[in-house]
Structure formats: C-alpha cells, structure tokens
Amino acid sequence: MSTLRVDNLRGQTADGTNRYIVQVVQNTPTTTTHITIIQSPPTMAEVSTTFRTTITPKFASSLLRLNFQCLIGGRNSSSIMGIKFFDITNSSNVGFSSLGTGSSRTFVNASVRTKDHDANDRDHLNMTAYQSANNTNSRTYTIQAYKEADGTMDFNMTGTDNSGCSYAPPVFTIEEIAQ
Predict the structure, then answer these.
(1) Handedness of CA 9, 14, 17, 22 (dihedral sign)
(2) 3-state SS track over 70-82
(3) Which residue has the higher pLDDT, 4 or 74?
(4) pTM above 0.85, yes or no
C-alpha cells in the first residue's frame, strides 16, 4: 500500500505562471425560505441578505471567481429577469463591462425568461463572474435582481408546496485564485 501526501499542489500554465486556488468561501444558507422579488429595471434589489458572502483576499494580485446557483422561476410570465453580483463594500458591479451594453440595457451577469407551462415551472440558474482582488481588504458580495415588467420572481422554490415541486439549496461560492 502506498501513501501520497501533498502539502501544496500548484499548476503551471503555458506561459509559466503558477495559478492555484488560495481559498474558497462557500455560503449555503442554513435556513432558506421561498424568496420573491418584485423589481423593474434599471433598479435592481438585493434578493436576500442570507446570500451575502464575505471574503478577505490573501493576495492583492489574485483573481476572484464568484459563482451562484439556485432555482429561479418567473411565474409563467414572458418578462425577462436579470440577476447580478454586487460588491456591497465598494458599491460596484462585478465583471462590469461597457462593451455591448448599448444605450439603455441594464448590466447583469445572467438573464433568463421563463415562459413555461404554469407558475410553478423553474429553471436552474448558474452564474459566474470574475474580479481582480486589487487589495487584501475584506469585501462582501450579494445577489441583486430585477424583472422586466412588474411581477413576481421566485428564488429557491416556487409558491406551490407539494411533492411534485422541487427545492434545491442556493449556493454562493467565491474562490481566490493566485495569479
């Protein structure tokens, strides 16, 4: 029988740069309820304070990879829903670019339209964005959302509580990647 013990495993990219995950912060709220939001663009609202996730980068040169996933539903409307990461500490969007936004489009990290069969249909959102750490100050991120026209947007589950409907815990993960 053989044993392999590794204290630190680092990969090297084609350009000779060492990149590795320095730390991972994961937030899966321990108490999750049915979350609804009614917000029209361009104003976005925080989905839930339970999604707030804080990281303190170890290196200013690191890259932060934010990933959020959960069930969402649009209550069988044809309205577009927009979701984004928001840096509460620095009051800024994550992964923002002015390229391709046009004159009146609202910036988001993910967008969906769920015109399905009925109000209980849902989709699984998996949203990722990247941001340079720039410093080693602690910062807190959250999830914000809007719906194109007035109406309700569901997170985590739909409004009907029966065995035919599903629930999946939301997961917000931030990885610090050394550059």
Answers:
(1) negative
(2) EEEECCCCCCEEE
(3) 74
(4) no
